[in-house]
Input
Amino acid sequence: MIDIANPRQIVLVTCRAVVNNFGKQELKDNITTIIWHSPLSNEPKMYCISIHKQRFSHELLSKSKVFCVNFMDVNYESHVLFCKNNTGNNLDKFIATGLTKMEAQKIDCSLIKEASAHLECEIINEIETGDHILFLARVLNDKLYRKDKRIFHISGDEFSTII
Output
């Protein structure tokens, strides 16, 4: 089914929460690759993302109730692929990818400095949709830095751009 709905723009979602890591409480930042996301409303500004229940980011989102959507240029395809294929449970994806972490302005979450645009989102509802959770969020801050060629997912590890 997923390939029938493609191509779809792919984004990197950042999230942060305190988690239990081998009996020790740690503040963890993570980057996850998402293709299931969408604007929901202009007034108020609303956005949603869908995350598999088994993913590490699901735990962080459920605890923190915030996330950032980072719209990436096609030149960051390898970074997107790395974040898609690796868990952040015991890996710092910022360090592993070389992406630059910066702080969001309106929420307690990291952003990716190299992104062409950001959405800072506060989760207002979670809906179970089978093996995924749909996180509905209010956009508290949005910034467009530049209009770059964005990454679109075709199938598997195959990407394209439309511009």
In short: The chain is about 15% helix and 50% strand. The two ends are 25 Å apart (CA to CA).
